[in-house]
Specification:
Aldehyde Dehydrogenase, Chain A, domain 2, four-stranded parallel β-sheet, Aldehyde Dehydrogenase, Chain A, domain 1, alpha/beta
Length: about 425
Amino acid sequence: MATGTESAVETLNEDARDVETICRELAVRARQAARSLATVGPGAKDAWLAAAARALETRTDELLAANALDVQAAPGLGLNAAAIDRLTLNPKRIGEMAQALLDVAALPDPVGEVVRSSRRPNGIEAVQVRVPLGVIFMIYESRPNVTVDAAAICVKSGNAAILRGGKEAIHSNRALHRILADELPSHGLPAHAVQLVPTTDRAAVGTLLNLPEYIDLAIPRGGEGLIRRVVAEARMPVMKHYQGICSVYVDQAADPDVATRIIVNAKAQRPGVCNAAETLLIHRAIAPSWLPQAAVALKAAGVTLRGDEKACEIVPDAAPASPMDWDTEFLDKILAVKVVDSMDEAIDHIARHGSSHTEAIITRDLAAARRFVACVDSSAVMVNASTRFNDGGQLGLGAEIGISTDKYHARGPCGLRELTSTKWIVYGDGQIRE
């Protein structure tokens, strides 16, 4: 099925001078689609999600052929083995993308949800309801599954999506977009509810970031350089976090076995993600007895320790930490370790070196836990649990489009509700203000 976006792809590829024109057309179409989406009920959106899930599986061969082109070109683009693995599709991963669409369909629709209401003394009824943000511009790297996830979450929350994936996944993203877009009109959704930026030219991102009259929110997902570029150039709000420098503090009242289990999971389960622990802070009262057993468990998991002077005295084979290590998101099996004299010192360290993403305290002292939670200014704070739980699926959101460390308007994992705003509706029968 041909779409307007496909013709735009052909035009743009023929004449790169049309980047600005095509991007503006994408934005205008998205704004028009957003107005239509605002009136679409949950049934139509869920039917599209289910149909798109079926289409992903029935058109698996088409997706695999497109993905093979990206995988073949990946080494020439400088992708390492881990990045190529994230890029690669197979029937199992396509099935998981299809299931993700069904999972989003099963979530409650936030649009129209009543936040609060009251009947005023003069008889008017004031109701605050959730409404879509409008148009969301999503910029991301590497993983083709983000194309599917972002489209699903945006449309389910009533928003039109403009998607811009990385050049390393261009063929995969185009194939995925075709499948998603082909199912839109037949389910009563606007044809341009989901659009893909049809070029890898970096100028397209800059053009779209300068169209606040059409785009309501930008969401970058990728490296810190990408995110800082988007924040610097965007003329609309940006939902983002720069880094995931996450800390685990082991209090003097910690259960040693619980602390070991948590730090190994927080650091080593998936070290290359934003909610993995990068720093371990240990109260001096428990450090001599606990840190050696934790070091053995971490070493068994392949983790290398970089410690301050006290930590290196306790674990002699730990490498000395440099000043930069406290401010580094390693995204690898490397853990910076510091022994602190008090919880206050741990909190101060997090305030100076953390990224406001995720922190954890391990303690059996309820008062200490409450004070840590109150004093640590991060999007999520865990008590006796791994930092890895700062995730939309794990926290019951069902799906997320990213994690925000901002304080306004959304913070932490951002799911369907976080892609809505609110509107006040007032019902009266002729009242006027005196």
